[in-house]
Amino acid sequence: MTKLSVNINKIATLRNSRGGNVPDLLKVANDIQQFGADGITIHPRPDERHIRYQDARDLKSVVYTEYNIEGNPQHNFIDLVLECKPTQVTLVPDAIGALTSNAGWDTIKHQSYLLEVIQEFQRNGIRTSIFVDADEKMIEGAKATGTERIELYTESFAHEYGLGNKSGIEPYVKAAIKANELGLGINAGHDLSLDNIKFFKDNIPGLLEVSIGHALIAESLYLGLENVVNMYLQKLK
């Protein structure tokens, strides 16, 4: 079964919009795990517009499933991850001020930098994953960095699937086959939803984990958080 890690950034966005501690991020994280999710994902950004760095520290004592921290490996982020020691760190090449993640790493151009950062995390017992496009050359470049996993950036697939174009899965299938050949674990995320998750999972060989936030929280407004978490788990079986 492919694991479900729930990204709780949007819960933090809602809390921050009003001030105070409603909704309580730590309680939501605990509840999501109680509902059956396999992990919690956060993506702190330098401006702390949703997840704050202190949230990452506070969640360490709450997350008893897999704890995944995503972000651009700048100095403050690296220090935070080494302090929190999550299960996994996912390296994402976010530009400053980016609304959301919009591209994978060029693992050839940035290979030496990624190699250095990844070695530091691995020395501290933290599993690493690199956010990449569905491009076989980028998969090969990721392998050379020493990372254990990649996370396929699925925005393009989700867009094409929404238009009724199921052939949009093809580059992802090829990327997954290449990753499997190279011994890389496969994660995926971005714009995956209840509508497209089963098709994606059924067609990607060796898919270990998906990280879903925006769609899952939006769907929960209508269907309820516990119900939606379990709907994803059923589709991922």
Automatic annotation (TrEMBL):
<comment type="function">
    <text>Catalyzes the complicated ring closure reaction between the two acyclic compounds 1-deoxy-D-xylulose-5-phosphate (DXP) and 3-amino-2-oxopropyl phosphate (1-amino-acetone-3-phosphate or AAP) to form pyridoxine 5'-phosphate (PNP) and inorganic phosphate.</text>
</comment>
<feature type="binding site">
    <location>
        <position position="191"/>
    </location>
    <ligand>
        <name>3-amino-2-oxopropyl phosphate</name>
    </ligand>
</feature>
<feature type="binding site">
    <location>
        <position position="50"/>
    </location>
    <ligand>
        <name>1-deoxy-D-xylulose 5-phosphate</name>
    </ligand>
</feature>
<feature type="active site" description="Proton acceptor">
    <location>
        <position position="70"/>
    </location>
</feature>
<feature type="binding site">
    <location>
        <position position="18"/>
    </location>
    <ligand>
        <name>3-amino-2-oxopropyl phosphate</name>
    </ligand>
</feature>
<dbReference type="Pfam" id="PF03740">
    <property type="entry name" value="PdxJ"/>
</dbReference>
<feature type="binding site">
    <location>
        <position position="7"/>
    </location>
    <ligand>
        <name>3-amino-2-oxopropyl phosphate</name>
    </ligand>
</feature>
<comment type="pathway">
    <text>Cofactor biosynthesis; pyridoxine 5'-phosphate biosynthesis; pyridoxine 5'-phosphate from D-erythrose 4-phosphate: step 5/5.</text>
</comment>
<feature type="active site" description="Proton acceptor">
    <location>
        <position position="43"/>
    </location>
</feature>
<keyword id="KW-0664">Pyridoxine biosynthesis</keyword>
<comment type="subunit">
    <text>Homooctamer; tetramer of dimers.</text>
</comment>
<feature type="binding site">
    <location>
        <begin position="213"/>
        <end position="214"/>
    </location>
    <ligand>
        <name>3-amino-2-oxopropyl phosphate</name>
    </ligand>
</feature>
<dbReference type="InterPro" id="IPR036130">
    <property type="entry name" value="Pyridoxine-5'_phos_synth"/>
</dbReference>
<feature type="site" description="Transition state stabilizer">
    <location>
        <position position="151"/>
    </location>
</feature>
<feature type="binding site">
    <location>
        <position position="45"/>
    </location>
    <ligand>
        <name>1-deoxy-D-xylulose 5-phosphate</name>
    </ligand>
</feature>
<dbReference type="InterPro" id="IPR013785">
    <property type="entry name" value="Aldolase_TIM"/>
</dbReference>
<keyword id="KW-0963">Cytoplasm</keyword>
<feature type="active site" description="Proton donor">
    <location>
        <position position="190"/>
    </location>
</feature>
<keyword id="KW-0808">Transferase</keyword>
<protein>
    <recommendedName>
        <fullName>Pyridoxine 5'-phosphate synthase</fullName>
        <ecNumber>2.6.99.2</ecNumber>
    </recommendedName>
</protein>
<dbReference type="InterPro" id="IPR004569">
    <property type="entry name" value="PyrdxlP_synth_PdxJ"/>
</dbReference>
<comment type="similarity">
    <text>Belongs to the PNP synthase family.</text>
</comment>
<dbReference type="GO" id="GO:0033856">
    <property type="term" value="F:pyridoxine 5'-phosphate synthase activity"/>
</dbReference>
<feature type="binding site">
    <location>
        <position position="100"/>
    </location>
    <ligand>
        <name>1-deoxy-D-xylulose 5-phosphate</name>
    </ligand>
</feature>
